[in-house]
Amino acid sequence: MEETSCILLQACKEGRKALLETEANAVCREYGIPITRFELSKNENESVKYAEKIGYPVVLKIVSPDIIHKSDVGGVIVDLRNADEVKAAHKRIIENVRKHKHAARIVGILVQEMAPPSTEIIIGSTKDPQFGPAIMFGLGGVFVEIMKDVAFRIAPITEEEASEMITEVRAYPLLTGYRNSPPADIAAIIKILLNVSKLVTENQEIKELDLNPVMIYPKGAKTVDARIILE
Predict the structure, then answer these.
(1) Which of 52, 83, 148, 181 has the smallest number of Cβ neighbours within 10 A?
(2) Under CATH, which architecture does the 37-114 domain have?
């Protein structure tokens, strides 16, 4: 996977431990992990051009190696529905970042498709010093935060193990069509788990990977936020 190797090499050369979100998205895309459409914009006009290419509504996010928690500095604005809103949001994000962290290096603004709301899942990986990368699966929101309702397997995982991880979590019934909601695309979740397993197995310099949330639909899925931390 050539693009991934180049991105990881560049980050290491620059002494960065975290990939930029655009880089993490590109790595995921190369490994067949479904990501919302995105572009990196350098100015207000580019943000509008990309928003119109992607299709409204869009989300704008700061891209900076010095800012990990974007929301804390006003670096994320969601649900933008026209060119005027995009221009104003681009300007406001830059102002917010300068106000909170004046010296932060700004690479640009991420213009991202806003995924329709749906059931949220979390898929991740963390590297154990003894066993190597472990894959994690859970449902989003309170299930992960409060109930710690997650399943783990050591990578690489098989299709059967991916399927077991999904059915193991206590919140699994929510994926099968609970009450009036349609069943989620379990095959799409299995595919993401297998692709994440392949990604972290082939790139041992990845210490942590976090896809949170992944919106899962009756057909297909979209990763809204991807984070990759290196050794």
Answers:
(1) 148
(2) 2-Layer Sandwich (3.30)
